[in-house]
Amino acid sequence: MTTQAPAFAEVNYTNGYEFTQGSGYALPEYPFVSPPELQTGQTPRHAVVIVGGGITGLTLACSLANQGVKAILLDEDNTVGVKGASSRGICYTQKSLEIFDRLGIYQRIARKGIQWSVGRTFAGEDEVYAFDLRQQSNFNLSAQPPFINIQQFYIEGYLVERIMELGGVDLRWRSRVTAFEQNADVATLTVQTPEGSYRLQADHVIDATGSHTPFHAWTGVSMQSTKGDDRWCIADVRFNTHPPIERHTWIEAPFNENRAVWQHLMADDVWRIDYQMAPNADAAYVSREDVVRERLE
How far apart are CA 5 and CA 46, in angstroms? Predict the structure, then answer.
């Protein structure tokens, strides 16, 4: 049975983030390279096609390259991270670091990121809980530390570098999948590029485009999900003074109207601050630089 995809506009999606433009991060940009399908007009068949060049898709692509498995990765952007966004993912656990070590990028992460093991939790002015994972024996069984904090786009960039070093995976930037169909034998994707669209086939297609992926509609697969009422303002800031290199969590922060706050140090001497907002808060106002600065002082 063949499933024909609806028009892309019908399944265009967003993850619901409200971004403010910042000037602190300069993300790398990768060139669009015209694929051979545009010149030949043919629809070649590949073993593996990965859709989505975020941390999940790039980690899978790097793992395949590390195993000598040929694949194609399609990403609709021309960079890592999200333009106009902050750090996004930042805290990488020991198990993840072990995986990155096997893929050959751990040393780059360790040189750039911030290692930490101590976490403290506060309710108002009172410290109610603390831990130091280096004191727990199970964390000493690994060559990697308990945690490294680093902006997600750095890891994605290191994965791109490693994939290019290994070869075997064709990274295709500015390539948006606009249609998908499959039968018992093969899957066919339509890809839109700056130079026009083309089709390719794959034995295996891995969707790494996020929770609101258009593949749900294209394949008729449903997903049960729940969304909480919490709203958060996430800001990347530099302090004039240097707080301890620890993760601090406030259950009830006096400086945030007794709502929650998380504080982490990352690479480049940048602190990630997550503020729980009031349900009716104006996100544009809360994220203004002067408002964030006043809250921190």
Answer: 20
